[in-house]
Amino acid sequence: MPTVTTDRRPSDGPRRLATPGDLRRWSERCRAAGLSVGLVPTMGALHAGHRSLVRRACVDCDRVVVSIFVNPRQFAPGDDLDRYPRSLDADLDMLADEAVDAVFLPTVEAMYGPAPATSVCVDPSLTGILEGIHRPGHFDGVALVVAKLLIACRPHRAYFGQKDAQQCAVVRRLAADLDTGVEIVTTPVVRDRDGLALSSRNAYLSRAERSRALAIPAGISAAATAFAAGEHRSQVLRNLVRAPMEAAGFDIDYVVAVDAESLATVEDVRLGCQILVAGRMGTTRLIDVIRLGIDAAPLGGAGPQGSEIPGVTGSQGSE
Ligand code: AMP
Predict the structure, then answer these.
(1) pLDDT digit string, tens, across residues 108-160
(2) pLDDT of 9-38, one tens digit each?
(3) Please, what is the angle between helix 20-32 and helix 138-153, to 10°?
(4) Residue with CA nearest ligand 1 atom 5
(5) Is 209 inside a domain boundary?
(6) Is the CB of 56 under 6 A from ligand 1?
(7) Which domain holds residue 22?
(8) Is the minimum distance from the CB of 198 to ligand 1 under 6 angstroms?
(9) Beta strands in 191-311 (DSSP E)
(10) How many CA atoms lie within 13 A of 226 on its CB side?
(11) Where are the beta strands (DSSP E) in 198-305?
């Protein structure tokens, strides 16, 4: 059995764990030593959005493991699995800088073996809508890999970005329904200076496409500003998002206003409801989200009204 220690801040970078068994043994040692464990699942190509999850986990937990695994099961046919960006050396440098304790780097074989026969399905009311329509099978892949990570790691907390709002809702249900005992922590969207939400997929955008993609933060800023001024009609808010996206040439998949937990669409938009956006700029599919009355408008213009929700302090707040 490989030696697994629980030392914090290893001088030679995060400890590398290769198999679910390695992850389990590392985590068991931490727990046995009375240390809390945080898990940050990622697909690598790390950026400041991932860094924000890692930093939050390092504040909350005694030990932090980041998984880097481009999960083939969450890519639908025709998705970008083959060209998904990979930058392991830079990722490991970032995680060493952040003093992450361990990094889980499984191969597809180590994760799934030759012929896995088990699936994990979260109810279609959460998974068969929005991303589930445009990326068939996506959430079955997400649910399977997250369940496997939670079982192998048994973290006290697992960290997910609000940017993937539907994923957050699906993972919260999965973690609760399977009695994992894991606290699911979600953190706000991190944006570039120009307002575009950071994404590994932004690397696909040409210069001109990237500039046109700013229609998304412009649109959700307009909606946030209108909401702050008292506009609660979903259709009006959605049109404020759609108009600049259409003008910029986006092929829009959806612009919806939803309840954050159930993801049910709402006509009368209330504090904490979310506007979810997805569209294609050229060959690059982008998603974004704003929590109305909580997140600051990406381009300014509307301050958060977070005081009505205890503990929420604006776009850098958390749930
Ligand atoms: P990914 O590597 O794309 O699977 O993302 C790993 C985690 O980072 C997910 O929980 C994402 O929601 C989160 N994440 C990705 N982009 C951002 C961002 N711009 N701000 C905050 N979290 C993000």
Answers:
(1) 999 999 988 999 999 999 999 999 999 999 999 999 999 999 999 999 999 99
(2) 556 789 999 999 999 999 999 999 999 999
(3) 40
(4) 42
(5) yes
(6) no
(7) 15-187
(8) yes
(9) 251-258, 274-281, 284-291
(10) 20
(11) 251-258, 274-281, 284-291
